[in-house]
């Protein structure tokens, strides 16, 4: 069996006295797009924080590429190929587009990184000298995704990439996400735009009140019972 790029094993976690995640387990395979869905407040962002190392679980394990990283710091997980695009915070707003790209890519390969970024989203080349904070929301998300891409990560966690964007822009970003996955990078997407993410995901987890309420294929997730119970408000 192929080793999962990410395994979350029986994680329980929360803030102070409040338990937010209870006995949560999930896996992300190589080159796959996995959707993490569920109602507001279900604990999706909290789970991403446990994977990145921002939040330490009270029990359970986070395993990256077969290695238990539960006690490892954020930077050590990043070195192992983990990349996180937090909701609304994927770029440095006061730096230019080009500076954002060059800071993300490997040292010594600046022009290669810039070319890769512009090839992915040509509009970023046209706007290379613009301050990132003055880009449209869609262009900022393109920049955030590209910043992750040029780091050649093994796993990218993306929180609500489609938030507030026009459907045509979401389509462009999701097409690019599919391309990255086809090149072997795995992605775990937290999404509100359920119908669009179901179209590109190979596996779906639904988190509800801190527990995995559903795990299955996008087709199964679209079945009326799962959809109506957990996803219809978010679609
Ligand atoms: P949303 O879609 O609304 O972002 P979510 O599924 O990502 O929801 P979380 O943001 O993980 O859910 O929040 C889960 C619960 O944890 C909520 O009750 C929230 O109020 C609480 N919570 C989140 N962050 C903190 C924090 N830093 N301190 C205390 N409680 C928090």
From TrEMBL:
This is ABC transporter ATP-binding protein. It comes from Nocardia flavorosea. Residues 6-234 form the ABC transporter domain. Signal peptide: none annotated. InterPro entries: AAA+_ATPase, ABC_transporter-like_ATP-bd, ABC_transporter-like_CS, BCAA_Transport_ATP-bd_LivF, P-loop_NTPase. Belongs to the ABC transporter superfamily. Transmembrane segments: none annotated. GO terms for molecular function: ATP binding; ATP hydrolysis activity; branched-chain amino acid transmembrane transporter activity. Keywords: Amino-acid transport, ATP-binding, Nucleotide-binding, Transport. One of its GO terms (biological process) is L-amino acid transport. PROSITE patterns: ABC_TRANSPORTER_1, ABC_TRANSPORTER_2. SMART domains: AAA (SM00382).
